[in-house]
Amino acid sequence: MDIPYFGEALQTTVLCEACGFRHADVLLAREGPPTRHALRVARPSDLSARVVRSSSGTIRIPEIGGLLEPGPRSEGFISNAEGVLHRFRDILGFLARNADSPAARRRAEASRATLDRMIGGEAPFTIILDDPFGNSAILHDAAEVRPLTNKEVRGLKTGVLTVEIRRGTPRAPASP
């Protein structure tokens, strides 16, 4: 498929009827420079800003301490700023229901109430989208875009599993 602003892409969906496993992703045919997109959502109309997150993108919402990092089963998505807030709200709902203490439940519910005000356009917030492969973006005239520093890139998860092999004497397995 051809995605505006991003070019050629392959959309994949893997489904297992036996166990219910599902994984969907959009794989771009290109890799760009490591990039940060940031948008201050100050007006209700800003909630419609398009957010394109690849499976390697990290989303932060500093006002609630929200962090969505990629993992081995991370999926890319195309949404808007409001949709991103709803994703965080769903996670906080799960955390509130499954909290291991009343204090943790109260913190999750307080953050969820803040998200409700953000979703309603009553509280400004910032979305920061970092992608070490440059395949994510916030498409809005007010979005700030800049390259990530090498230090910032090293601090990001990519969702890609890697194996590091070090030279030296191999260690024997521990005895049972």
Could you please describe the fold and organization of this structure?
It contains 3 helices and 11 strands, in the order E-E-E-E-E-E-E-E-H-H-E-E-E-H. It has 176 residues and is an alpha+beta fold. It has a domain at 32-149: Sandwich (Jelly Rolls), CATH 2.60.120. The strands form 3 sheets. It has a 5-stranded antiparallel sheet with strand order 7-6-9-4-11, with no helix packed on it. It is globular and about 45 Å long. The model has no long low-confidence stretch (mean pLDDT 85).
Report the CATH topology name of the domain at 32-149.
Jelly Rolls
Report the sheet with the most strands, covering strand number, pairing sense and barrel closure: 5 strands, antiparallel
Give the overall pLDDT as a whole number: 85
Unreliable spans: none
State the order of secondary-structure elements, H for helix, E for strand.
EEEEEEEEHHEEEH
Termini separation (Å)? 53 Å
Strand order of the largest sheet: 7-6-9-4-11
Helix content: 10-25%
Beta content: 25-35%
Top-tier CATH class of the domain at 32-149: Mainly Beta
Chain oligomer state: single chain
Q: What is the radius of gyration?
A: 19 Å
Structural class: alpha+beta
